[in-house]
Write the structure tokens for this entry.
Amino acid sequence: MQNESKRRLFKSRIAIGILGIMLCTPSLSLGWGFGGHMMVAAIAFERLNPHAKAQAMALLARPIKPADVTAKSKDFVNAAHWADELRPFAEFDSFKPFHFIDQPFSIDGTALPAGLPEPDNIVTALEDNLNILKTSTDKDAQAQALRFIIPFVADVHNPLHCATRVDSDHRNGDQGGNLLKIIVPGAGGALKTTNLHSYWDGGIGTFPKTGASFAPPPLSEIGPAAAKAMQGNPDTNPALKLDDPTNFDAWARESFALAQNVAYKGMTNGVTPSAAYDAEALKVARQRVA
């Protein structure tokens, strides 16, 4: 009964958002960005056995609601940005906590805020959707669950989707670096202001970029980028812990530690990341994708 209620809840939330998709223009803030999500999916799909690939493709071919969004992502790699195409719309606000888990830590002794992490978060969403995928007899429910699992697996490996830094100026946390402004090179080398979260979402400026009107990067760019992520991070590397594929809480704890020790290290408002920071951050970002 509990599982069936969760299936109905996910379906009802999708239905509520259809009108919003028709009427609204999105403003995106994504975990890893479309490019990073697609890199993760490309690597993951190649690790599936033939039977699993066939089952996944059959589910992704189902025209679940919202049909116009689903129609753009019928393959495994493009399905990686399906959930993010729902996020910008107010009607889908109830989905937003499923993309992250704000585990707080304090850098100056400021008390940690109550209520964090929220009970609805990326770890519980992965657990719930995996259970639906494994146990539901409703193929559309399974298809929807798979479309959530693919991007959420990417997001939970992003350090800034699993941490929020607390200090006297941010007593409720900095929203995974969204409130921490940094200065980075932009187009043509000109400096621009962004936030730390977005910097990591884009793979420290190196992952395939979203195009005009939030179009996903072409598949031709994903393979080479995924190959770079795999360099030095082969699937035989025990540090990747690929033998424990459903320990979502452990993945989140790994990301939390990396947020504290790498992503936030030396980062303050208005700082420009050093070359040494960028090199270490990119190494970690690629490993997390792998």
